[in-house]
Design goal:
Helix content is 64%, strand content 0%. By secondary structure, it is mainly α. The longest helix has 38 residues.
Length: 142
Amino acid sequence: MKSIILSLLMFVSVSSFAADVKLEKKWGPVILAIAQVESEGHPERVSKCGRYVGYLQISQILVRECNNIAGYKKYSYNDRYDKQKSIDMFIDFMERHNPDGNMERAIRLWNSGDRNCMSRKSRTEGYYRRVMSKYSESATLR
């Protein structure tokens, strides 16, 4: 019985890891471009107002939202300084609020936090252009 349970746990763990790798690959270029705009890729960066921190400049509100998505306290406020956990939060947030993987929506949603961001594009236009510029730069390096 123990070996069956251990085998199941191992299978779930490996399957979960494979799904995480797939999602990170899907979102990777967008995450990299956003990180360049948000923090120039520095996980220790704190915004001028102090509300946004880390690699992807994550707020406490977003941490709470990601925990609500997970259904338990998956992330702490300090996890915002951890590059990988910041990426994980981005993926969790996008998979819930942008499951079709629309890149424009992802960028605008990350900037505004407003799920109606596509109907209010003018508020996120400058940010969208900066991220797309970084995205294009990184695409030429790939």
